[in-house]
Prior knowledge:
The complex is a heterodimer of chains A (119) and B (231).
Chain A: H1 11-24, H2 37-44, H3 48-60, E1 64-67, E2 71-74, H4 78-102, H5 107-116
Antiparallel strand pairs in A: 1-2
Helix pairs in contact in A: 1-3, 1-4, 2-3
Chain B: E1 4-13, E2 16-26, E3 31-35, H1 42-49, E4 57-62, E5 65-66, H2 69-74, E6 75-78, H3 90-100, H4 106-115, H5 129-141, E7 147-151, H6 159-172, E8 178-183, H7 186-189, E9 195-200, E10 203-209, H8 210-217, H9 221-228
Parallel strand pairs in B: 3-8, 3-9, 6-7, 7-8
Antiparallel strand pairs in B: 1-2, 1-4, 4-5, 9-10
Amino acid sequence: MEFTFENNIPIYIQLLDYMKIYLISGVFKSGEKLPSVREFATTFKVNPNTMQKALSELESMNLIYTERTNGKYVTKDEKIIEKLKDEYAMTLAKSYFQGMKRIGLGKADSIKYLERIKG
Amino acid sequence: MELLEIKSLDKKYGDKYALKDINLKLSGGKIIGLLGKNGAGKTTLIKLINDLLTPTSGEILIKGNKVGVETKKIVSYLPERTYLNKQMKVNEVLSYFEDFYENFDAQKARKLLKDLDLDENQKLSKMSKGMQEKVQLVLVMSRNADLYILDEPLGGVDPATRDYILDTILSNFNENASVIISTHLISDIERILDEVVFIDKGKIVLQSDTDELRKKENASIDEIFRRMFKC
Lengths: 119, 231
């Protein structure tokens, strides 16, 4: 997979976003060991220091934790991941409604459009 | 100890200041962009760090040592213009580098040359400008140095190769080494930079963490640079 980054948004924030999606979608499961900073940096083609910063942020959000000498793991607390998923879904939903509002469509109309999407 | 420390550095050509009161500290393990317009003083600063010019006043320390023979062993420098004998074949240049630098890793160089589809048996004079630039970059990145200084490394290469070169820089610098990249092609390179140093009219006008600066200004480094130095 090719990862693309916008130059006008801090790179670590964009990495954080990719990582959140990985956690929500279960690419890395609760309690699973994560690849090293170096490996992540190679995959994303980013500076290892930037990757480190993104992982530190995830850690301060309690989404991952460091086991001394052993590396980093996804939190064992599945509730935290569930909460992240809920928040993320809410952000996506809000941004959809904001977009519709910009072209003059209210909530009820916006939902009708959602229902027209098949599958 | 800082990897690189520059204290109150001045450089005058005649009575004109090319650099004035430069103070800079860089630690290991970082990629730093030295950004400035043409004639801002980037190359002069780089040449001073490589002991190719003598400061008018002030001093430059690399791992605590004044620049000179000792520091040249740990600094790997890619100049703006090639200095290689174009009548040499690539493999001749390799053995030349092997003889010259203790920390040159010929095996690594061969691997990088292969990745870039460069023929070791070809004479430099038979290669295009872009190919010659690639050879030179491979040579410089294949030294196990503490500080890499790349003066306009992307100028003559195509965008696809640019990406490869950036990846090469990323995957080849080790945790203790730092890389200084001077360029005016900011948008191509800014994603890999830890820090930026803006230089204008011989002075350092800004030094910042790249992501912090993006966050603060809500813009890309390229945009911030353009705003700041609008003609």
